[in-house]
Amino acid sequence: QVQLVESGGGLVQPGGSLRLSCACSGFALDTHTVAWFRQAPGKEREGISYISSRSYHSVGGRFTISRDNFKNTVYLQMYSLRPEDTAVYYCAAGSGEIWNLQQDSYNYWGQGTQVTVST
Length: 119
Known about the structure:
Layout lengths: L2 E5 L2 E3 L5 E8 L6 E8 L6 E6 L4 E3 L4 E6 L4 E6 L8 E9 L12 E2 L3 E5 L2
Parallel strand pairs: 2-11
Antiparallel strand pairs: 1-3, 3-8, 4-5, 4-9, 5-6, 7-8, 9-10, 9-11
């Protein structure tokens, strides 16, 4: 059974950093692509970053994606956070090499973790 569980969200001050984790089970990271998306209140869900065995990509310069194949976990390190980064952050997975952030490309989704950037 495929399962993705996000953690690491919370309240952080503007300019701060946060690392999100996506614990994956039921599949191997080296045969799948895992991505991070976010959805802010009143806005559509948007893609942030993806990582596969052969490629990785992040939008903008403040987010870094990485993975630990032994722990079957994918991380999203976020720097210089801004109030507009406030959103629910989701990880998603799809089979094979997926070099895009189109939501339809990803079959499995986690429940999300809330990130709030505020003073």
